[in-house]
Design brief:
Structural class: alpha+beta
Number of helices: 15
Strand content: 15-25%
Largest sheet: 5 strands, mixed
Protein backbone atom coordinates (compact mmCIF):
# COMPACT_ATOMS: atom_id res chain seq x y z
CA UNK A 1 0.00 0.00 0.00
CA UNK A 2 2.82 2.39 0.88
CA UNK A 3 4.48 1.70 -2.47
CA UNK A 4 1.27 2.50 -4.34
CA UNK A 5 0.79 5.71 -2.37
CA UNK A 6 4.40 6.74 -3.02
CA UNK A 7 3.93 6.10 -6.74
CA UNK A 8 0.80 8.30 -6.82
CA UNK A 9 2.57 11.12 -4.97
CA UNK A 10 5.54 10.89 -7.32
CA UNK A 11 3.24 11.01 -10.35
CA UNK A 12 1.48 14.11 -9.00
CA UNK A 13 4.84 15.74 -8.41
CA UNK A 14 5.84 15.07 -12.02
CA UNK A 15 2.58 16.59 -13.26
CA UNK A 16 3.08 19.69 -11.15
CA UNK A 17 6.64 20.11 -12.36
CA UNK A 18 5.48 19.76 -15.95
CA UNK A 19 3.16 22.75 -15.64
CA UNK A 20 4.29 26.34 -16.09
CA UNK A 21 2.73 29.71 -15.51
CA UNK A 22 2.31 32.99 -17.30
CA UNK A 23 2.00 35.77 -14.75
CA UNK A 24 2.52 39.49 -14.37
CA UNK A 25 0.83 42.85 -14.11
CA UNK A 26 -1.27 45.20 -16.22
CA UNK A 27 -1.24 48.99 -15.93
CA UNK A 28 -3.46 50.93 -15.34
CA UNK A 29 -4.94 48.21 -13.14
CA UNK A 30 -8.51 49.49 -13.33
CA UNK A 31 -8.62 49.07 -17.12
CA UNK A 32 -8.10 45.29 -17.11
CA UNK A 33 -10.31 42.52 -15.74
CA UNK A 34 -9.70 39.28 -17.64
CA UNK A 35 -7.07 37.53 -19.73
CA UNK A 36 -7.34 34.69 -22.26
CA UNK A 37 -4.46 32.67 -23.73
CA UNK A 38 -4.71 31.06 -27.17
CA UNK A 39 -2.23 28.80 -28.92
CA UNK A 40 -1.72 30.06 -32.46
CA UNK A 41 -1.82 27.42 -35.16
CA UNK A 42 -1.54 27.59 -38.89
CA UNK A 43 -4.55 29.62 -40.00
CA UNK A 44 -6.33 29.55 -36.65
CA UNK A 45 -6.04 29.81 -32.87
CA UNK A 46 -7.00 27.36 -30.10
CA UNK A 47 -8.17 28.26 -26.60
CA UNK A 48 -5.71 27.28 -23.83
CA UNK A 49 -6.76 28.95 -20.57
CA UNK A 50 -8.11 32.15 -19.02
CA UNK A 51 -7.92 33.93 -15.69
CA UNK A 52 -9.05 37.03 -13.83
CA UNK A 53 -6.82 40.09 -13.63
CA UNK A 54 -7.17 41.15 -9.99
CA UNK A 55 -6.05 44.71 -9.17
CA UNK A 56 -3.68 44.61 -12.13
CA UNK A 57 -2.10 41.23 -11.31
CA UNK A 58 -2.71 37.77 -12.72
CA UNK A 59 -1.29 34.25 -12.82
CA UNK A 60 -2.34 31.73 -15.42
CA UNK A 61 -1.33 28.06 -15.34
CA UNK A 62 -0.68 26.43 -18.71
CA UNK A 63 -2.31 23.00 -18.64
CA UNK A 64 0.11 20.09 -18.84
CA UNK A 65 0.91 18.82 -22.29
CA UNK A 66 0.00 21.98 -24.18
CA UNK A 67 1.95 22.52 -27.38
CA UNK A 68 4.93 24.83 -27.46
CA UNK A 69 4.99 27.78 -29.84
CA UNK A 70 3.40 31.20 -30.14
CA UNK A 71 0.63 32.07 -27.70
CA UNK A 72 -1.71 35.02 -28.08
CA UNK A 73 -2.59 36.95 -24.92
CA UNK A 74 -5.99 38.66 -25.24
CA UNK A 75 -6.83 41.27 -22.62
CA UNK A 76 -9.92 43.11 -23.94
CA UNK A 77 -12.49 43.14 -26.73
CA UNK A 78 -12.53 43.20 -29.67
CA UNK A 79 -9.99 40.40 -29.36
CA UNK A 80 -8.39 41.06 -32.75
CA UNK A 81 -7.32 44.51 -31.54
CA UNK A 82 -6.37 43.98 -27.91
CA UNK A 83 -3.74 41.27 -27.86
CA UNK A 84 -0.03 40.53 -28.11
CA UNK A 85 1.99 37.39 -28.77
CA UNK A 86 4.53 35.54 -26.64
CA UNK A 87 6.64 32.40 -27.02
CA UNK A 88 5.93 29.43 -24.76
CA UNK A 89 8.57 26.68 -24.91
CA UNK A 90 7.15 24.34 -22.25
CA UNK A 91 10.30 24.69 -20.13
CA UNK A 92 10.01 28.04 -18.37
CA UNK A 93 7.60 30.28 -16.52
CA UNK A 94 6.88 33.64 -18.14
CA UNK A 95 6.58 36.91 -16.22
CA UNK A 96 5.81 40.23 -17.92
CA UNK A 97 4.50 43.70 -17.23
CA UNK A 98 2.08 45.25 -19.71
CA UNK A 99 1.09 48.90 -19.94
CA UNK A 100 -1.07 50.57 -22.55
CA UNK A 101 1.67 52.93 -23.75
CA UNK A 102 4.67 50.60 -24.05
CA UNK A 103 3.17 47.14 -24.47
CA UNK A 104 4.72 44.08 -22.80
CA UNK A 105 8.13 43.99 -21.15
CA UNK A 106 9.41 40.63 -19.94
CA UNK A 107 10.96 40.05 -16.53
CA UNK A 108 11.33 36.28 -16.85
CA UNK A 109 11.54 34.08 -19.96
CA UNK A 110 14.73 33.60 -21.95
CA UNK A 111 12.78 33.15 -25.17
CA UNK A 112 10.78 36.35 -24.90
CA UNK A 113 13.53 38.51 -23.43
CA UNK A 114 15.93 37.61 -26.24
CA UNK A 115 13.34 38.16 -28.97
CA UNK A 116 12.05 41.47 -27.60
CA UNK A 117 15.62 42.75 -27.06
CA UNK A 118 16.53 41.71 -30.59
CA UNK A 119 13.55 43.50 -32.13
CA UNK A 120 14.36 46.64 -30.16
CA UNK A 121 18.07 46.62 -31.05
CA UNK A 122 17.62 45.76 -34.72
CA UNK A 123 14.99 48.52 -35.10
CA UNK A 124 17.32 51.04 -33.47
CA UNK A 125 20.19 50.01 -35.75
CA UNK A 126 18.06 50.25 -38.89
CA UNK A 127 16.87 53.67 -37.78
CA UNK A 128 20.50 54.78 -37.69
CA UNK A 129 20.81 53.92 -41.38
CA UNK A 130 17.67 55.92 -42.16
CA UNK A 131 19.09 58.83 -40.15
CA UNK A 132 22.31 58.55 -42.16
CA UNK A 133 20.45 58.96 -45.45
CA UNK A 134 18.54 61.94 -44.03
CA UNK A 135 21.70 63.63 -42.76
CA UNK A 136 24.10 66.02 -44.47
CA UNK A 137 26.83 63.35 -44.31
CA UNK A 138 25.02 60.84 -46.51
CA UNK A 139 28.09 60.53 -48.73
CA UNK A 140 30.41 59.68 -45.82
CA UNK A 141 31.39 56.07 -46.56
CA UNK A 142 33.12 55.47 -43.22
CA UNK A 143 30.05 56.58 -41.24
CA UNK A 144 27.83 54.39 -43.41
CA UNK A 145 30.13 51.39 -43.01
CA UNK A 146 30.10 51.84 -39.24
CA UNK A 147 26.29 51.75 -39.18
CA UNK A 148 26.26 48.67 -41.41
CA UNK A 149 28.81 46.85 -39.23
CA UNK A 150 26.71 47.56 -36.16
CA UNK A 151 23.65 46.16 -37.91
CA UNK A 152 25.56 43.06 -38.98
CA UNK A 153 26.98 42.55 -35.49
CA UNK A 154 23.57 42.81 -33.82
CA UNK A 155 22.07 40.27 -36.21
CA UNK A 156 24.93 37.79 -35.81
CA UNK A 157 25.02 38.23 -32.03
CA UNK A 158 21.34 37.43 -31.56
CA UNK A 159 21.44 34.53 -34.00
CA UNK A 160 24.18 33.03 -31.81
CA UNK A 161 22.38 33.81 -28.53
CA UNK A 162 19.14 32.24 -29.71
CA UNK A 163 20.58 28.92 -30.94
CA UNK A 164 18.31 26.12 -29.75
CA UNK A 165 15.43 28.46 -28.90
CA UNK A 166 12.11 28.94 -30.65
CA UNK A 167 13.03 32.62 -30.94
CA UNK A 168 15.85 31.62 -33.31
CA UNK A 169 13.26 30.99 -36.05
CA UNK A 170 12.03 34.59 -35.86
CA UNK A 171 15.47 36.17 -35.51
CA UNK A 172 16.98 34.41 -38.53
CA UNK A 173 13.85 35.00 -40.62
CA UNK A 174 13.91 38.71 -39.73
CA UNK A 175 17.49 39.22 -40.96
CA UNK A 176 17.51 42.60 -42.75
CA UNK A 177 19.18 43.50 -46.02
CA UNK A 178 22.77 44.53 -45.23
CA UNK A 179 24.62 46.46 -47.98
CA UNK A 180 28.27 45.59 -48.66
CA UNK A 181 29.20 49.19 -49.46
CA UNK A 182 27.80 52.71 -49.58
CA UNK A 183 24.93 53.05 -52.03
CA UNK A 184 22.38 55.71 -52.87
CA UNK A 185 19.15 55.81 -50.93
CA UNK A 186 17.29 54.81 -54.12
CA UNK A 187 19.49 51.72 -54.51
CA UNK A 188 19.22 50.92 -50.81
CA UNK A 189 15.42 50.97 -50.91
CA UNK A 190 15.32 48.92 -54.12
CA UNK A 191 17.77 46.34 -52.77
CA UNK A 192 15.75 46.04 -49.55
CA UNK A 193 12.72 45.26 -51.68
CA UNK A 194 14.61 42.83 -53.93
CA UNK A 195 16.01 40.90 -50.96
CA UNK A 196 12.95 41.06 -48.72
CA UNK A 197 11.98 37.39 -49.02
CA UNK A 198 15.48 35.90 -48.90
CA UNK A 199 15.18 34.71 -45.30
CA UNK A 200 11.41 34.16 -45.10
CA UNK A 201 10.42 30.49 -45.23
CA UNK A 202 6.70 30.15 -45.85
CA UNK A 203 6.94 26.43 -45.03
CA UNK A 204 8.41 26.96 -41.55
CA UNK A 205 5.74 25.61 -39.18
CA UNK A 206 6.90 27.83 -36.28
CA UNK A 207 6.61 30.98 -38.37
CA UNK A 208 3.28 29.97 -39.88
CA UNK A 209 1.85 29.29 -36.41
CA UNK A 210 2.33 32.93 -35.48
CA UNK A 211 1.56 36.37 -36.87
CA UNK A 212 5.15 36.83 -38.06
CA UNK A 213 4.89 35.84 -41.73
CA UNK A 214 1.51 37.51 -42.16
CA UNK A 215 2.84 40.75 -40.68
CA UNK A 216 5.98 40.63 -42.82
CA UNK A 217 3.94 39.94 -45.96
CA UNK A 218 1.49 42.75 -45.20
CA UNK A 219 4.36 45.15 -44.54
CA UNK A 220 5.95 44.29 -47.89
CA UNK A 221 2.75 44.50 -49.92
CA UNK A 222 1.65 47.90 -48.64
CA UNK A 223 4.93 49.69 -47.87
CA UNK A 224 7.37 48.51 -50.56
CA UNK A 225 6.66 51.61 -52.63
CA UNK A 226 8.73 54.10 -54.63
CA UNK A 227 10.30 57.07 -52.85
CA UNK A 228 8.68 59.44 -55.33
CA UNK A 229 5.09 60.68 -55.03
CA UNK A 230 2.57 58.56 -56.94
CA UNK A 231 -1.18 58.83 -57.45
CA UNK A 232 -3.53 56.49 -55.63
CA UNK A 233 -4.20 54.61 -58.88
CA UNK A 234 -0.45 54.18 -59.47
CA UNK A 235 0.04 53.07 -55.87
CA UNK A 236 -2.64 50.42 -56.22
CA UNK A 237 -0.97 49.03 -59.34
CA UNK A 238 2.36 48.84 -57.47
CA UNK A 239 0.67 47.10 -54.53
CA UNK A 240 -0.88 44.55 -56.89
CA UNK A 241 2.60 43.94 -58.31
CA UNK A 242 3.86 43.37 -54.75
CA UNK A 243 1.09 40.82 -54.18
CA UNK A 244 2.11 38.96 -57.30
CA UNK A 245 5.70 38.75 -56.05
CA UNK A 246 4.54 37.61 -52.61
CA UNK A 247 2.43 34.90 -54.24
CA UNK A 248 5.49 33.34 -55.86
CA UNK A 249 6.86 32.67 -52.35
CA UNK A 250 3.69 32.02 -50.36
CA UNK A 251 1.90 29.71 -52.77
CA UNK A 252 3.91 26.69 -51.61
CA UNK A 253 2.22 26.97 -48.19
CA UNK A 254 -0.82 25.00 -47.08
CA UNK A 255 -4.23 26.09 -48.27
CA UNK A 256 -5.37 27.08 -44.76
CA UNK A 257 -2.37 29.30 -44.24
CA UNK A 258 -2.81 30.95 -47.64
CA UNK A 259 -6.45 31.67 -46.86
CA UNK A 260 -5.46 33.38 -43.60
CA UNK A 261 -2.72 35.36 -45.35
CA UNK A 262 -4.81 36.64 -48.26
CA UNK A 263 -7.83 37.32 -46.05
CA UNK A 264 -5.59 39.51 -43.89
CA UNK A 265 -4.32 41.36 -46.98
CA UNK A 266 -7.91 41.86 -48.18
CA UNK A 267 -8.95 43.34 -44.84
CA UNK A 268 -5.96 45.69 -44.87
CA UNK A 269 -6.77 46.87 -48.40
CA UNK A 270 -10.39 47.51 -47.41
CA UNK A 271 -9.33 49.50 -44.33
CA UNK A 272 -7.39 51.91 -46.55
CA UNK A 273 -10.01 52.00 -49.33
CA UNK A 274 -7.80 50.31 -51.90
CA UNK A 275 -10.80 48.94 -53.80
CA UNK A 276 -8.83 47.85 -56.85
CA UNK A 277 -6.38 45.98 -54.63
CA UNK A 278 -9.09 44.28 -52.56
CA UNK A 279 -10.92 43.26 -55.75
CA UNK A 280 -7.71 41.81 -57.18
CA UNK A 281 -6.98 39.83 -54.01
CA UNK A 282 -10.49 38.43 -53.95
CA UNK A 283 -10.90 37.53 -57.61
CA UNK A 284 -7.36 36.25 -58.19
CA UNK A 285 -6.89 34.20 -55.03
CA UNK A 286 -9.12 34.63 -52.00
CA UNK A 287 -12.44 33.57 -53.54
CA UNK A 288 -11.11 30.17 -54.60
CA UNK A 289 -9.33 29.70 -51.26
CA UNK A 290 -12.56 30.47 -49.38
CA UNK A 291 -14.39 27.81 -51.39
CA UNK A 292 -11.63 25.23 -50.95
CA UNK A 293 -11.37 25.81 -47.18
CA UNK A 294 -15.16 25.94 -46.75
CA UNK A 295 -15.07 29.50 -45.40
CA UNK A 296 -18.52 30.25 -46.79
CA UNK A 297 -19.40 32.92 -44.23
CA UNK A 298 -16.29 34.96 -44.99
CA UNK A 299 -16.87 34.58 -48.73
CA UNK A 300 -20.45 35.84 -48.33
CA UNK A 301 -19.31 38.72 -46.11
CA UNK A 302 -16.72 39.82 -48.68
CA UNK A 303 -19.22 39.69 -51.51
CA UNK A 304 -21.71 41.68 -49.43
CA UNK A 305 -19.04 44.28 -48.70
CA UNK A 306 -18.17 44.55 -52.38
CA UNK A 307 -21.72 45.13 -53.57
CA UNK A 308 -22.56 47.54 -50.72
CA UNK A 309 -19.45 49.70 -50.49
CA UNK A 310 -19.57 53.41 -51.17
CA UNK A 311 -19.73 54.20 -54.88
CA UNK A 312 -21.47 50.96 -55.85
CA UNK A 313 -24.94 50.97 -57.43
CA UNK A 314 -27.44 49.76 -54.85
CA UNK A 315 -28.76 46.22 -55.49
CA UNK A 316 -32.16 46.03 -57.11
CA UNK A 317 -35.33 46.30 -55.03
CA UNK A 318 -38.86 45.72 -56.36
CA UNK A 319 -41.64 47.84 -54.86
CA UNK A 320 -45.26 46.70 -55.13
CA UNK A 321 -48.35 48.86 -54.81
CA UNK A 322 -51.38 46.68 -55.37
CA UNK A 323 -50.92 45.09 -58.77
CA UNK A 324 -48.27 47.61 -59.80
CA UNK A 325 -44.58 46.78 -59.42
CA UNK A 326 -41.62 49.08 -59.99
CA UNK A 327 -37.92 48.79 -59.45
CA UNK A 328 -35.50 50.95 -57.51
CA UNK A 329 -33.37 51.35 -60.62
CA UNK A 330 -36.37 52.79 -62.49
CA UNK A 331 -37.28 55.47 -59.94
CA UNK A 332 -36.79 59.00 -61.20
CA UNK A 333 -37.24 62.60 -60.14
CA UNK A 334 -35.14 62.71 -56.99
CA UNK A 335 -31.64 63.95 -56.31
CA UNK A 336 -31.20 61.48 -53.46
CA UNK A 337 -32.84 58.27 -52.32
CA UNK A 338 -32.93 56.97 -48.75
CA UNK A 339 -33.25 53.21 -48.21
CA UNK A 340 -34.54 52.11 -44.82
CA UNK A 341 -34.55 48.46 -43.78
CA UNK A 342 -36.91 48.16 -40.84
CA UNK A 343 -39.56 45.97 -39.24
CA UNK A 344 -43.03 46.80 -37.98
CA UNK A 345 -42.23 44.85 -34.78
CA UNK A 346 -38.96 46.73 -34.12
CA UNK A 347 -39.21 49.26 -31.27
CA UNK A 348 -36.27 51.35 -32.49
CA UNK A 349 -37.84 51.50 -35.96
CA UNK A 350 -41.20 52.70 -34.65
CA UNK A 351 -39.35 55.38 -32.70
CA UNK A 352 -37.09 56.61 -35.55
CA UNK A 353 -39.24 56.36 -38.67
CA UNK A 354 -42.13 58.74 -37.76
CA UNK A 355 -39.85 61.76 -37.05
CA UNK A 356 -37.83 60.99 -40.17
CA UNK A 357 -41.06 60.80 -42.16
CA UNK A 358 -42.08 64.18 -40.80
CA UNK A 359 -38.66 65.68 -41.59
CA UNK A 360 -38.50 64.44 -45.21
CA UNK A 361 -42.11 64.27 -46.43
CA UNK A 362 -42.10 67.74 -48.01
CA UNK A 363 -38.69 67.44 -49.67
CA UNK A 364 -39.45 66.61 -53.30
CA UNK A 365 -35.81 66.01 -54.18
CA UNK A 366 -35.57 63.15 -51.68
CA UNK A 367 -37.40 59.85 -52.01
CA UNK A 368 -37.53 57.30 -49.21
CA UNK A 369 -37.89 53.59 -49.85
CA UNK A 370 -38.76 51.66 -46.70
CA UNK A 371 -38.20 47.90 -46.92
CA UNK A 372 -40.05 45.96 -44.24
CA UNK A 373 -38.35 42.77 -43.08
CA UNK A 374 -41.41 40.95 -41.84
CA UNK A 375 -42.81 37.61 -40.72
CA UNK A 376 -46.34 38.54 -41.76
CA UNK A 377 -48.14 41.24 -43.75
CA UNK A 378 -51.00 42.46 -41.56
CA UNK A 379 -49.07 44.40 -38.91
CA UNK A 380 -46.75 45.82 -41.57
CA UNK A 381 -49.74 47.16 -43.52
CA UNK A 382 -51.03 48.87 -40.38
CA UNK A 383 -47.70 50.61 -39.75
CA UNK A 384 -46.95 51.70 -43.33
CA UNK A 385 -50.32 53.49 -43.41
CA UNK A 386 -48.74 55.91 -40.91
CA UNK A 387 -45.88 56.63 -43.34
CA UNK A 388 -47.71 57.56 -46.56
CA UNK A 389 -44.95 59.63 -48.19
CA UNK A 390 -42.52 56.69 -48.17
CA UNK A 391 -42.33 54.14 -50.96
CA UNK A 392 -42.74 50.68 -49.42
CA UNK A 393 -41.49 47.18 -50.13
CA UNK A 394 -41.84 44.04 -48.05
CA UNK A 395 -39.41 41.16 -47.64
CA UNK A 396 -41.04 38.19 -45.92
CA UNK A 397 -38.86 35.92 -43.86
CA UNK A 398 -37.38 38.79 -41.83
CA UNK A 399 -33.67 38.02 -41.15
CA UNK A 400 -33.75 35.15 -43.66
CA UNK A 401 -35.52 37.22 -46.31
CA UNK A 402 -34.22 38.10 -49.76
CA UNK A 403 -33.43 41.76 -49.05
CA UNK A 404 -31.95 41.07 -45.62
CA UNK A 405 -29.42 38.83 -47.37
CA UNK A 406 -28.93 41.11 -50.37
CA UNK A 407 -28.22 44.16 -48.19
CA UNK A 408 -26.47 42.20 -45.40
CA UNK A 409 -28.91 43.44 -42.75
CA UNK A 410 -28.19 42.36 -39.17
CA UNK A 411 -30.05 45.10 -37.27
CA UNK A 412 -33.04 47.33 -37.86
CA UNK A 413 -33.35 50.09 -38.77
CA UNK A 414 -30.45 50.19 -41.23
CA UNK A 415 -30.05 53.19 -43.55
CA UNK A 416 -28.44 53.79 -46.96
CA UNK A 417 -28.34 57.09 -48.83
CA UNK A 418 -28.05 56.99 -52.64
CA UNK A 419 -27.36 59.66 -55.22
CA UNK A 420 -29.53 60.27 -58.30
CA UNK A 421 -27.84 57.37 -60.11
CA UNK A 422 -28.64 55.01 -57.19
CA UNK A 423 -25.00 54.83 -56.11
CA UNK A 424 -24.44 54.36 -52.37
CA UNK A 425 -22.94 57.52 -50.88
CA UNK A 426 -23.54 57.07 -47.13
CA UNK A 427 -24.56 54.56 -44.45
CA UNK A 428 -25.88 56.67 -41.55
CA UNK A 429 -26.25 55.04 -38.13
CA UNK A 430 -29.67 56.49 -37.25
CA UNK A 431 -32.44 58.85 -38.35
CA UNK A 432 -30.66 61.92 -36.98
CA UNK A 433 -27.51 61.03 -38.93
CA UNK A 434 -29.63 60.69 -42.10
CA UNK A 435 -31.00 64.21 -41.66
CA UNK A 436 -27.58 65.60 -40.77
CA UNK A 437 -26.00 64.09 -43.90
CA UNK A 438 -28.76 65.34 -46.19
CA UNK A 439 -28.61 68.84 -44.65
CA UNK A 440 -24.92 69.02 -45.59
CA UNK A 441 -25.83 68.33 -49.22
CA UNK A 442 -28.64 70.87 -49.50
Amino acid sequence: MKKILFAIVALLALNINAQHTISGTFTPAEDFTWLIAYRLKEGTQVYVADTKIDKGSFSLTIPEGKEIGTYRIVYAVPQEEYNFDIIYNGKEDIVFHFDVDNGASFEKSEENIILSNYLRDIATSQKEIINFYNSSSKNNASKFNKAIEELKEIQQSYETKSEGLIAHNFITANKPYIPKQLESVQDYVQHKKDNYFNTLDFNNSVLKSSAFLTDKATNYVFTALPLKQVTKAEKEEIIIGNIKKLSSYANTSSINYKFQLYNNLWNYAVTYNYNKVSDYIYTSTLKDLAVETNNTEIKNAIEAHNRLRLGEIAPEITLKNGQTAKKLSELEGATNYVLIFWSSTCGHCLKELPPLHKELKNKANIKVIAVGLEDEIEHWETEIAKLPSFEHAISLGKWDSTYAALYDIHATPTYYILDKDKKIIAKPENDKAVVEFLNKIY
